[in-house]
Amino acid sequence: MTQKLQLQVNGREVSAEVGETTLLSTFLREQLRLTGTHIGCDTAQCGACTVHLNGRAIKSCNVLALQVAGGQVTTIEGITPAEDGALHPMQEAFRSCHGLQCGYCTPGMVMSALDLVAHHPHATEAEIRAGLEGNFCRCTGYQNIVKAVAQGAKAMGM
Amino acid sequence: MGAPGLIGRSIERKEDYRFLTGQGQYTDDVSLPNQSYAVFVRSPHAHARLRAVKTSDAARSPGVLGIITGKDMAAVGGLPCGWLITSLDGTPMKEPKHPVLAEDKVRYAGEAIALVVADSLQQAREAAALVEVDYDVLPAVADTATATQAGTAVHEQAADNVCFTWGCGDKSATDAAFARAAHVTTMEYVNNRLIPNAIEPRAANAVHHRADDSYTLYVANQNPHVERLLMTAFVLGLPEHKVRVVAPDVGGGFGSKIFLYAEETALVWASKRIDRPIKWTAERSESFLADAHGRDHVTRAELALDKDGKFLGLRVHTTANLGAYLSTFGSCVPTILYGTLLAGQYATPAIYCEVKGVFSNTAPVDAYRGAGRPEATYLVERMVEMAARELRIDPAELRRRNFIRSFPYTTPVGLTYDTGDYEATLARALQLADVDGFAARRAASARKGLLRGIGYSCYLEACGLAPSNVAGALGARAGLFEAGEVRVHPTGKVTVFTGSHSHGQGHETTFSQVVAEKLGIGFDDVDIVHGDTAKVLFGMGTYGSRSLAVGGTAIVKAVDKIIAKGKKIAAHLLEASDADIEFSGGEFRVAGTDRKKTFAEIALTAYVPHNFPLDKLEPGLNENAFYDPTNFTYPAGTHICEVEVDPSTGQVRVDRFTACDDFGNVVNPMIVEGQVQGGVAQGLGQALLEACRYDAEGQLLSGSYMDYAMPRADDLPNVKVETLAGTPCTHNPLGVKGCGEAGAIGSPPAVMNAITDALAPLGVRDVPMPASPYAVWTAIRAAARH
Question: Which residues 69-98 on chain A approach chain B with CB closer than 8 angstroms?
């Protein structure tokens, strides 16, 4: 069974027929073809699917698409508007700190980082590490990600 | 316009923009017109006879396009093993068929039984639940140490579950060394089984093109040409040139995406029958069950020393769990990549190693970051540390007494190290780790009721796989060269095609640095193409820290050919002899004059050959090269770990970790540092957190992220990494050795040496990996009882 879903995704109004059991992550990837949101597990542990819902980071694999009706969803694609293509300061920090390798966890990591610094603008290293606890990275050992989050926060004027 | 000094600079990565903006294209991101979706029916039992696989109800389920079972695919070959190991008695390893889909039996929990294809993923899932399998459940064997006496055989061909009993080194010389030893250190331990867990799950999307009876397979894979060769020539019997394999952006591999797996093979086979593109992406639960696992050794090792602490001999008996079937490199990891590494950094004159490879009702075991070399390093470095403790010799001093100091050096287990300086990495690591300040830190910890320990690991690895003739003599069924192609376009821009595959290593950046510097052109004037058999001429792929040393060298050789041809073109234009043309900084110049042509001018001339020596030279500027290394490369270094242990809870905290490495020359220090940090993180995971566990019935107990403890950001320390200028590799033109696996190889023994150092005052001799609070607490309690 499907139902009509209306919401905002990356600042645009979206209206779609969505299955009642369709996860937000599936909706974003399969129906909107926003494939920057990744799926890394089936138990809401890895954080690769992290997006923002009404300004807070959520794991989009753990929410039904219909649950976010009327909400504002931002995915990684919404962080870098296609118009000018310039990286957000947080993305820039990930690049300059070498905070990514294979790139698979990266969109979720950036979305979590943005939420983290928005709510903890002066987070210490330990707080950043604790704040990223919901996101797995298997490549980097997190060290450069932690560095990037601190540098990104600074660049954002936090 | 030239770009001198690109090699050796920490240049930001080319690939990062697309990854950071969500524009990466991983296999599951590829959706084809008329896409269909697959789900695999998997065995819930570790060992069972299949009485019947009934698909009729499932076939009537909405949206179902087809269901394939082992019976349908019985005529195709089994998944091949790429390495033939010969037992000590001269017999070949037992090589039972590894069916794509289970035929008469299932042999591990998670083994694929049927492939269900439907219009949507949800429909495929619902139909898969309707496939009825009638199992005759059999007793299972899961435990490595007791597999030979389990009384149940995984395969009829191996009643005692032994696949091979392999040996290397000189047994009688080693026994003689022990006979005259002043001291023998003995240790029995388990090298814990791990699950690689790249964050991108395995995925595949296969399509058959009726127009020319060809196929395209998108697959998360580290070596698309090898995947294609194995699948077409050994399993499906398809013409190799009719199958295109694309490994697009791949979200981490760590070895687990080297292998030819059942899933993508079944997809390719089914795509023609079902006549739709078929996509499958593993759920994480499937990855836990059915990705190849790593490690899983049970070892007894003895080290013989003379009265001065000189190593006389090392004797090793290992049982290695191979899982239910031989995976692509399953047989070579615990043998060739393990036994040959047991000299480490030391001049141990006699070594003997015997490895029993055993089948079990568990997922296949194969290469995982380091592949055999972490197991060897763990053995050597734990033994050395233990001997130092027993002999009351400073562990750094004991290592120094035994270091190999002149090169080339041929070990008693068959390798010839070309170069190295183990004293340099040890000395610098001791400084970086402030070992002098350790006593004060230990006292400070003690005041808090905590036990502080320090542990060293002086690792060595053999990388740059591999000289094909050597590998062939050791049982490899493939060559291990690499291929590269350099295509200069008429405007002087360059596209490089490499058989290496990047899944996090940053080849698009590193290889561009090399090519741009060699050709004296801009970094952004070079693009690197990889991962597509339709574009890249050939390739053996990326694993074993081989990409720069072998793949990079193939590219350099192709660049050299470009320059050589460019000189001929320049000589013609400048009316000089070929021998008088020099090339540097992107300019071809007549030696000793100011007459010159730029690289771009030569490129244009090659494609607009109006004034061109057409009688002697073909137009165009495109060269390829194959490079087969003459030796392995031998990265080495010292890791030092310092831990604090809370004796009341067994909690271990890594307070500092230092890695000082010699990778030969370095192209991009930032990327190298990242590789070391990431490798150390996986090593710390093995040492402290990660344990793949099966119960006695072969059920996977650690089958989700809630049960398998992967390191999270707050589990890990910062790692201090320093890469020395080092000793450049002597046998490849870049002088590089490889850095991808070093962190995972060197770090586990450093951690465990630190923990056992901390606990030594309590009488604890050993702690098993992973050193969970419970394991440490148990070891403390056991020591207190003695």
Answer: 75-77, 79-80, 85, 87, 91, 94-96, 98
